[in-house]
């Protein structure tokens, strides 16, 4: 049985950027924006404001070639700053076999960190953001490197599975090189691996809790895509998984709803649509502020629930909720009830900063 070919056997194609004309049509601005000038065989992409200037940037994970970090220049163009920012290569200066990607405030400092799964024999990367778009590789210090190096990860999601207020990591895995033990047992598709759940201890370290997370984590599949969202609206993030040459799986979270939580759908003032890119903060009494971003991207070939869910842990008293809309407006609300999802419309709160 043959393994998958190396991506270096193929010439990569340019990434494409389409500008929304706001009339139901799109314009191809790949060349004009600069996005088409560098391309290395993309596997994942995520959009977030990585340098804190209020404009969305784009991180692209590439397989066996350097990653890209396209910083928004505020004039319709982007500049690839990945090498200078410290997220293009590993600490030894080598490109890795990067697959999917997710971004979020993983370390609780209010900035968009990055996690990128890779090929077995390597390890998943954790890039800690300094708030200005520069990154430190925290893969070994965090324990993520040791926990992931035996797996080929395709999808990853930053999800607070136990609603303690800290984002955890869910990896969906599936090999591309045959696993000899499975081949010798007669498997027609010997690439199956188990998935991983790494719990964030709130101090920059992650513990592999897969063995305690239920029978779903002992099952071997050839995992590829994963979409994250609260399927049954009970306050726990569930996971829909797509496998190669195998059935789709729906993993229901039976833990998250046991702790206090609050959730929001953030919509525009003119059109009832999700305001992707909006950052939402929940301020709590005597506890750190929680930040989440409205997004559906990340993971790998998947689109997730755009609602933002906050686990409140042992500090459920909310003093205010703040939205940093993509328009630049900042609004606040008070007196919002926990234990349910609330739709917040731009323009309905108390405006703090107008565009």
General description of the model:
This protein has helices at residues 30-33, 82-85, 139-142, 144-148, 180-184, and strands at 18-20, 26-28, 42-48, 57-62, 68-72, 78-80, 102-104, 113-116, 125-129, 135-137, 153-159, 168-173, 196-200, 206-208, 223-229, 238-243, 249-251, 261-267, 279-284, 287-293, 308-311, 318-324, 330-333, 341-345, 350-353. By secondary structure, it is mainly beta. A five-stranded antiparallel β-sheet has the order 20-19-22-23-25, with no helix packed on it. It has a four-stranded antiparallel β-sheet with strand order 3-4-5-6. A four-stranded antiparallel β-sheet has the order 7-8-9-10. The protein is globular. The model has no long low-confidence stretch (mean pLDDT 95).
Strand % is 25-35%
Annotation field: number of helices: 5
Strand line-up across the major sheet:
20-19-22-23-25
Please tell me the overall pLDDT.
95
Overall morphology: globular
Number of strands: 25
- Backbone CA Rg: 20 Å
> SSE order, as H and E?
EEHEEEEHEEEEHHEEHEEEEEEEEEEEEE
Which class best fits the helix and strand makeup? mainly beta
Q: Report the uncertain regions.
A: none
What topology emerges from the helices and strands here?
Blueprint: E1 18-20, E2 26-28, H1 30-33, E3 42-48, E4 57-62, E5 68-72, E6 78-80, H2 82-85, E7 102-104, E8 113-116, E9 125-129, E10 135-137, H3 139-142, H4 144-148, E11 153-159, E12 168-173, H5 180-184, E13 196-200, E14 206-208, E15 223-229, E16 238-243, E17 249-251, E18 261-267, E19 279-284, E20 287-293, E21 308-311, E22 318-324, E23 330-333, E24 341-345, E25 350-353
Parallel strand pairs: 18-24
Antiparallel strand pairs: 1-2, 3-4, 4-5, 5-6, 7-8, 8-9, 9-10, 11-12, 12-13, 13-14, 15-16, 16-17, 18-21, 19-20, 19-22, 22-23, 23-25
């Amino acid at each position: 049985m043959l393994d998958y070919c190396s991506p270096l056997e193929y010439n990569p194609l340019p990434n494409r950027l389409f500008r929304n004309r706001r009339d139901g049509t799109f314009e191809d601005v790949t060349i004009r924006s600069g996005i088409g000038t560098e391309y290395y065989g993309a596997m994942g992409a995520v959009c977030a404001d990585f340098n804190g200037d209020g404009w969305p940037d784009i991180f692209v994970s590439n397989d066996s070639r350097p990653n890209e970090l396209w910083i928004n220049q505020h004039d319709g163009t982007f500049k690839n700053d990945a090498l200078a920012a410290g997220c293009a290569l590993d600490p030894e200066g080598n490109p890795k076999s990067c697959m999917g990607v997710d971004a979020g405030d993983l370390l609780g400092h209010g900035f968009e960190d990055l996690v990128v799964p890779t090929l077995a024999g390597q390890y998943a990367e954790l890039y800690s953001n300094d708030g200005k778009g520069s990154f430190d590789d925290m893969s070994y210090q965090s324990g993520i490197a040791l926990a992931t190096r035996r797996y080929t990860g395709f999808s990853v999601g930053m999800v607070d599975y136990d609603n303690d207020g800290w984002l955890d990591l869910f990896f969906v895995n599936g090999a591309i090189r045959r696993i000899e033990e499975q081949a010798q047992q007669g498997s027609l598709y010997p690439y199956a691996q188990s998935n991983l759940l790494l719990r964030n201890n709130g101090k920059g370290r992650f513990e592999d809790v897969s063995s305690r997370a239920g029978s779903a984590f002992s099952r071997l599949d050839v995992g590829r895509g994963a979409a994250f969202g609260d399927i049954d609206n009970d306050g726990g993030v569930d996971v829909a998984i797509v496998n190669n040459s195998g059935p789709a799986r729906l993993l229901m979270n039976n833990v998250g709803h046991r702790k206090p939580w609050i959730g929001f759908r953030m919509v525009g003032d003119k059109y009832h649509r999700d305001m992707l890119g909006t950052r939402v903060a929940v301020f709590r009494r005597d506890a750190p502020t929680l930040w989440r971003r409205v997004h559906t991207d990340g993971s790998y070939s998947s689109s997730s629930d755009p609602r933002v869910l906050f686990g409140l842990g042992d500090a459920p008293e909310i003093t205010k909720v703040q939205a940093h809309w993509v328009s630049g407006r900042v609004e606040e609300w008070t007196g919002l009830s926990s234990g349910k999802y609330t739709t917040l419309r731009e323009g309905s709160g108390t405006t703090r900063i107008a565009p």
